[in-house]
Amino acid sequence: LILLACGSFNPITNMHMRLFELARDHLHQTGQYQVIEGIMSPVNDDYRKKGLVSARHRIAMAKLALETSDWIRVDPWESEQETWTETVKVLSLSFPIKILSLEVISHHHRLPLQSKTKGIAKTGKPSKYINLSFPFVFPVLPELKLLCGADFLQTINTPNLWKEEHIKEIVEKFGLVCVSRAGSDPARYINESDLLTKFQHNIFLVKEWIQNEISATQIRYALCRGLSVKYLIPDSVISYIAHHNIYTEESERKNEGDLLQPLKLH
Prior knowledge:
The protein is of the alpha/beta class. Helix content is 41%, strand content 13%.
């Protein structure tokens, strides 16, 4: 299994990285999955979210933060497109999918994934590219699931933010791994949606056993006020922000008054 998280990462926080760790532990405990990779995909600048700084900076900060991880990486593909790309297209166009046991893989990730699996498929032994603790043969390329916080499920009910057919494709074809947060009730969000209820077998709800309410928005507010954010985001990211003077009152006004791109399109 490969976990993909799409979002602003503005800036990346320790909580963003914890989502991956929590999700991997949960999926391993089911006894049904082996998570081999986590991918962060920062949103394109054209998303037009208020306070969204340049993808160039968000990618750089994510790379710095993930230097300490041996299984999570940042992928710039989504941010490098000419315009904002809908999440379902990020999943379908730039990552491998399996439909009716037929392997379909895009050109973007063909070589990296083949290099990771070819050593296992032929020998039955772990490839040097991934750390598996037991011999395993991949009958097909790894599945991909969208990793998100519980607030993602809540946004599904926001008028015109999502197309129903896109949500259906995401939960039916790929699946969701949703990590709970204090004050959110993902089970209720599912029950309130006929579509999510229909495919709830493909939605994994992960309990956050240590409450961690780090918010990127609050991090930006603190930085604008000159307050310390140490131990909330990696030191390397703090240094990068200070060096480039990224988060200021001016940057928080960026895209102010603009509609989010999906609201414009839908």
